[in-house]
Amino acid sequence: MNRWQNLWRFIPLFGLMMLLLTGCGDGTISAFKPRGPVARDQLFLMKLSFGIMILVVAVVFIIYLYVLVRFRKKKGDKDIIPKQVEGSHVLEIVWTVIPIILLLILAVPTVQYTFKALEDHRNDKDAIHVKVTAHAFWWQFQYPDLGIATAQDLVIPTGKKIAFEITSADVTHSFWVPSLGGKMNANVGLTNVYYLQADDVETFKGKCAVLCGASHSLMDFKVKSMDPADFDKWVAKMKTPAVIPADAQRGEQIFKDNCMACHAVNAQGLGAGPNLNGFASRELVAGILPHNDESLKTWIHDPQSVKPGNSMPKLGLKDDQINDVIKYLNSLK
């Protein structure tokens, strides 16, 4: 008995720990900190639905407590059955109409914002069009109107609508940037459309929101929002071929012999693997590792140890060859 009494003492401690842990997390992947109009609309819907639920729960508990107090049997009372109200037309109308009203209050703005997220960008001639293709376990981004393609780092201008066409190359994935808007499935053979927009210059984290394989949890990407002028400069740089220094040309040849079959290094290049054009300017390696020589060496030496189930084979390069390839990749600015 004493053992159980001691365990009960830990309940307040566990409750306090749970309360503190609710404040932990990354603010860049929180739907409760919107950074764009789509995310703000969706947060409004979440608050609206939560408010309706709180209202319903409060009314039910108030009625429940009223009944407990009003009709409780007091000492000395005889067995009296309260007046029965079954079959009351008034009550039946009340508890039928009120839920319908609450559902309409939630349904009307939900439908409105849903169609707005799907269709609004079509009326904006200045929208930036981006085709997103999900792969196991990386993301490909094409800008068909701008003639460039990249991977893992999605770059967008602030204050402009980004019109997305989302599909998948293998299995079902889900494109999700919590700070900018809700998720959208990437399905094989189908194309889903919606738009996002960033208010300020920031870097956001994106994730795959559907279980898609062994490295689902590692299928991350970055969204960088820039001033429109800086975005135009980035597009121009992406179209400018990198100047390979003399000490990186040996690595360039090794790359061509072993990697070029899957990876492109030009503005529009698409292949079985990510386009590495501008690779040296990316913040992460394979979407998850810090961008440094040690991470690159680990990734090239054994990709499966970093992202199990990915499509990149173990090339079997020697250490000096890997170092040369790293020097070449670091020149792709």
UniProtKB/TrEMBL annotation:
* Protein's UniProt name: Cytochrome c oxidase subunit 2
The protein's location, in the record's own words, is: Cell membrane; Membrane
Keyword flag Metal-binding? yes
Q: Pfam families per the record?
A: COX2, COX2_TM, Cytochrom_C
E.C. number, please? 7.1.1.9
- Tell me the membrane topology, using the record's own terms: Multi-pass membrane protein
**Matching Gene3D superfamilies:** 1.10.287.90, Cupredoxins - blue copper proteins
Q: How is the cofactor bound?
A: Binds a copper A center.
What does the record give as the reaction this protein catalyses?
4 Fe(II)-[cytochrome c] + O2 + 8 H(+)(in) = 4 Fe(III)-[cytochrome c] + 2 H2O + 4 H(+)(out)
Where the record annotates domain Cytochrome oxidase subunit II copper A binding, the positions are 125-237
Q: Which domain of life is it from?
A: Bacteria
Alphabetical list of InterPro entries matching this protein? CcO_II (IPR045187), CcO_II-like_C (IPR002429), Copper_CuA (IPR001505), Cupredoxin (IPR008972), Cyt_c-like_dom (IPR009056), Cyt_c_oxidase_su2 (IPR014222), Cyt_c_oxidase_su2_TM_dom (IPR011759), Cyt_c_oxidase_su2_TM_sf (IPR036257)
Entry keyword annotation includes Electron transport = yes
Q: Transmembrane ranges?
A: 49-69, 90-108
Q: What UniProt keywords are attached to this protein's entry? A: Copper, Electron transport, Heme, Iron, Membrane, Metal-binding, Respiratory chain, Translocase, Transmembrane, Transmembrane helix, Transport
Domain named Cytochrome oxidase subunit II transmembrane region profile: residues: 20-121
